Amino acid sequence: MDVLIFNNLDAEAAANILRPCIDIDRWIDSIVSERPFGSTEELLSQACNAANPFSEEEIVSAMAHHPRIGERAEGGSAEATLSRGEQSGLNMEADIKEQLAAGNRAYEERFDSVFLIRAAGRSSEEILAELNRRRTNDDKTETREVGEQLREIALLRLGALFDSVSAR
């Protein structure tokens, strides 16, 4: 997507372009209302500011769109397609897959939510280590970390959408 084309879309069409990055209305509205952007970097800067931080309610709402780490997202939605691409590089050998599944179950019992991490650019071993580390977090710390991961995922997706090299 070219930022100049994005600038000229009506608000609904622009929001629909952003929604697969993260389905948080405040974030989307903030970006759409700040148009026009002079560059992709300017758009990403606004997106970063709007995502810093997400509220607890926004985090809970956005989590509904994320599959368990190590599981293939089903369906043809843009979010599912992006998730499959982000997790495509993970090593899914039987041992790792079993450890992720067990870790996911323990995490869900602890936090009553799926474990969320930016998978792109990480090995399955690194993700597993983070899963085990974060299971020891208190609720407030974990909510903050989930928000940071959602922000990273949203900016990564937005950067890819606008063919940007750096999605801070």
Automatic annotation (TrEMBL):
Residue ranges of domain Oxo-4-hydroxy-4-carboxy-5-ureidoimidazoline decarboxylase in the record? 7-158
| Keyword vocabulary terms for this entry | Decarboxylase, Lyase, Purine metabolism
Q: Which PANTHER family match?
A: 2-OXO-4-HYDROXY-4-CARBOXY-5-UREIDOIMIDAZOLINE DECARBOXYLASE-RELATED
Instruction: Give yes or no: UniProt keyword Lyase.
Output: yes
Instruction: List the transmembrane segments.
Output: none
The gene name on file is uraD
Quote any Pfam family the record assigns: OHCU_decarbox
Q: NCBIfam families annotated for this entry?
A: PRK13798.1 (NF010372), UraD_2 (TIGR03180)
Q: Does the keyword Lyase apply?
A: yes
Question: Which reaction is catalysed here?
Answer: 5-hydroxy-2-oxo-4-ureido-2,5-dihydro-1H-imidazole-5-carboxylate + H(+) = (S)-allantoin + CO2
Supply the EC number(s).
4.1.1.97
Cited Gene3D superfamilies: Oxo-4-hydroxy-4-carboxy-5-ureidoimidazoline decarboxylase
The pathway entry for this protein reads as:
Purine metabolism; urate degradation; (S)-allantoin from urate: step 3/3
Q: What class of enzyme is it?
A: lyase
User: What name does this protein carry?
Assistant: 2-oxo-4-hydroxy-4-carboxy-5-ureidoimidazoline decarboxylase
Source species: Paeniglutamicibacter antarcticus
InterPro entries, alphabetized: OHCU_decarboxylase, OHCU_decarboxylase-2, OHCU_decarboxylase_sf
